[in-house]
């Protein structure tokens, strides 16, 4: 499970998605628009993250809204980003 989590965090697209979901939930279309990614790419990455229980979703009509599902991982991500940008 640990290696799978680090694998999830090793992909730049997944990092961008998780970083976006740190602040609030977003629909697949919102994520795609904000990050300038294809909807299929976002859906694929969200499926990967959902299988690891790093994100969760709620349905509103025909839309799915995703949010983070593991505060520990979000803290690790935030600390990693801070470390990478620390001069």
Give me a quick take on this structure.
By secondary structure, the chain is an alpha+beta fold. The protein has helices at 2-9, 12-21, 28-35, 39-51, 71-85, and strands spanning 26-27, 55-60, 63-68.
Overview of this structure, please?
With 87 residues, this protein is of the alpha+beta class. 62% of the residues lie in helices and 16% in strands. It is built from 5 helices and 3 strands. A 3-stranded antiparallel β-sheet has the order 1-3-2. Strand 2 and strand 3 form a beta hairpin. It is globular and about 45 Å long.
Helix content: 55-70%
Helical region count? 5
Average pLDDT reading: 93
Distance between the termini: 32 Å
Which strand order spans the largest sheet, edge to edge or round the barrel?
1-3-2
Main beta sheet strand tally, sense and closure: 3 strands, antiparallel
Summing up helix and strand content along with how strands pair, one would put the structural category as alpha+beta
Strand content of the residues, in percent? Answer: 15-25%
Q: Based on CA inertia axes, which overall geometry fits?
A: globular
- Give the total of beta strands: 3
